[in-house]
Amino acid sequence: MIEIGMIVLSVIFIIGGIFFFTTATIGLLRFPDFFARLHATGKGDTLAVLLCLIGLAVYEGVSLTGLKIVFIAVFMALAQPTATHAISRAALRRGIQPWTKGEDKK
Amino acid sequence: MNQFFIGAGMGISVLVLLVLYRVVFGPGVYNRIAAISAIGTKTLIILLIMGFVFHRVDMFVDISMVYALLNFIGCVAVAKYLEMES
Amino acid sequence: MVRQSDDIIIGTVARMLVPFIQLFALYVIMHGHYSPGGGFQGGVILGASLVLLLITHGLPETKKLISEKGVAILSSLGVLIYAGIGLLCLILLGNFLDYSQLSKILQVMPAEARSLGILGIETGVGLTVMAVMFSIFLDISTGGVLPEDEEE
């Protein structure tokens, strides 16, 4: 009984993760400006990876590999926003301007 | 449960192919770097799902952790290089 | 000791993550015969942690941590460990790198002596690979000209 509950919970988490991956990819393709695309991939991808990893850890159960998957999730939650910040800082320093409404699509 | 994992892996692979459009056609180098970071994140999940399909999770967990590390260090290094005045 | 860095967010996160990256690299070296890993892979991850410190804090701050002389000493130390273990097996009346002769001085079974011998040379390989990775990155990033030479 408990086993079926854990499997259902992990399936729910993984499907939620795939949903956020899809919306982040659509945002990366369709947004009009570089900084908007960085918003989509920086936030959406991080949340999707966290949900997927938690789902896989719940499926594995309480063991050494489950703990290692939780470590990967903590590392991702710390490192992905830092990488996004590094890219956006480099772009702002070199003079890329944000897009305002009324301009053409870049 | 095996079929579900294989289906999820194929779905994320299709998303990787969609992001490749931004790598090839992105105007400028910054779009390409953001897209490559996204591809690295999705690859990490595909590796872990493959570990569950082959019933050898403890081998693939180490590999995916190293890949997460390398993705982060590579992204920060390229961003630092692009910030320098030429 | 507080170190200056270019950006406060990236510097803080890098300083927080580097000890755990090095701990994971030590785990990869030790578990070479169970899981993917070994000496060379662990050495590369150790070198990558030093490169992360270099790109976030700049060259003069990292020089306070490891000087060029220290890098040269570390790489030679790794090769010394590798050749030293091989020579020790030669002195104990065996072939070169014949670890079963180590059971004479360690008082264990020959099979366990082989396992300990392999662990020893993997550690030496990891040390050398870390030092050489850091040195190559230093050479490429400064163009072979040190700031002390430039001032003259």
Features:
heterotrimer, B: 86 residues, 3 helices, 88% helix, C: mainly alpha
Structural class of chain C, by secondary structure, is: mainly alpha
Structural class of chain A: mainly alpha
Span from first to last CA of chain C?
30 Å
State the end-to-end distance of chain A: 54 Å
Question: What overall form of chain C do the CA principal axes indicate?
Answer: elongated
Number of domains of chain C: 1
Structure, explained:
- The complex is a heterotrimer of chains A (106), B (86) and C (152).
- Chain A contains 3 helices and no strands.
- With 106 residues, chain A is mostly helical.
- The termini of chain A are far apart.
- Chain B is mostly helical and 86 residues long.
- Chain B has one domain.
- Helices cover 88% and strands 0% of the residues of chain B.
- In chain B, α2 packs antiparallel against α3.
- Chain B is flat.
- Chain C is mainly alpha-helical and 152 residues long.
- Helix content of chain C is 74%, strand content 0%.
- Chain C is built from 7 helices and no strands.
- Chain C is elongated, with a radius of gyration of 19 Å.
- Classes of the chains: A mainly alpha (106), B mainly alpha (86), C mainly alpha (152).
- At the B-C interface, α3 of B face α1 and α2 of C.
In short:
Chain B has three helices and no strands.
Write the layout of secondary structure elements.
The complex is a heterotrimer of chains A (106), B (86) and C (152).
Chain A: H1 2-30, H2 34-60, H3 64-93
Chain B: H1 2-25, H2 29-53, H3 57-83
Chain C: H1 8-30, H2 39-57, H3 59-63, H4 68-91, H5 103-106, H6 110-142, H7 147-151
